[in-house]
Every structure is written in C-alpha cells, then in structure tokens.
C-alpha cells in the first residue's frame, strides 16, 4: 500500500511516500499499527489518516488501490 507523508512525518522518515507491507486491505487503525511497526521513529506521533482525500476513522477499511495520506495536526496563530 502506498502512503503519502507530510510535514514532520515526512522529515522523520526522509521520504514523502512509503510502501507499506501488509494485506491488500486493512482498517485505518491497522494501518496506524503497521506504520508504527515498520517505522519505529514515528511511534507516538499523532496523525490522521486520509483516504481518497477524506479523513477516515480507525474502523474504515482501506484498500490497496486507495490514495492514502498521513496528516499530522496543524497549529497556528
């Protein structure tokens, strides 16, 4: 599964896109656990999962051909 990274997540991994090993479909919650397992430097980082340009909840099933992005929180003043 191809996953796009942004902001601090991108900087920590050193890539803007990663290939995630795993089943062809998984929930967003399972995707988060797979991310933490394959990229330990992201352990504890908070981010939302977007699938096909919409934020999804942890129980949303994501297929291998979906466009997936990890979006960290944004702050500003």
Task: Please describe the structure with a list of short key phrases separated by commas or semicolons.
about 80 residues, five-stranded mixed beta sheet, two-stranded antiparallel sheet, about 30% strand, alpha+beta, 2 helices
Describe the structure.
This protein has 77 residues and is an alpha+beta fold. Helix content is 23%, strand content 30%. It contains two helices and seven strands. Strands 2-1-7-4-5 form a five-stranded mixed beta sheet. Strands 3-6 form a two-stranded antiparallel sheet. Strand 4 and strand 5 form a beta hairpin.
Number of helical regions: 2
Strand order of the largest sheet: 2-1-7-4-5
Strand content: 25-35%
Shape, please? globular
Low-confidence stretches: none
Q: Gyration radius, to the nearest Å?
A: 12 Å
Quaternary structure of the protein: single chain
Mean pLDDT: 92
What's the SSE pattern?
EHEEHEEEE
Give me the secondary-structure category: alpha+beta
Helix content: 10-25%
Give a quick account of the main beta sheet: strands, pairing sense, barrel closure.
5 strands, mixed
- Gap between N and C termini, in Å? 35 Å
Task: Summarize it.
Helix content is 23%, strand content 30%. With 77 residues, it is α+β, with helices and mostly antiparallel strands.
How are the SSEs placed, and which strands pair?
Layout: E1 2-5, H1 7-13, E2 17-19, E3 25-27, H2 28-38, E4 48-51, E5 54-55, E6 61-63, E7 68-71
Parallel strand pairs: 1-7
Antiparallel strand pairs: 1-2, 3-6, 4-5, 4-7
């Amino acid at each position: 599964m191809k996953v796009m990274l942004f902001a601090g997540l991108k900087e920590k991994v050193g890539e803007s896109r990663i290939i995630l090993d795993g089943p062809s479909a998984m929930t967003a919650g399972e995707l988060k656990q797979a991310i933490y397992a394959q990229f330990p430097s992201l352990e504890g980082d908070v981010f939302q999962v977007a699938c096909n340009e919409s934020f999804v909840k942890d129980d949303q099933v994501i297929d291998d051909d979906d466009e997936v992005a990890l979006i960290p929180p944004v702050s500003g003043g």
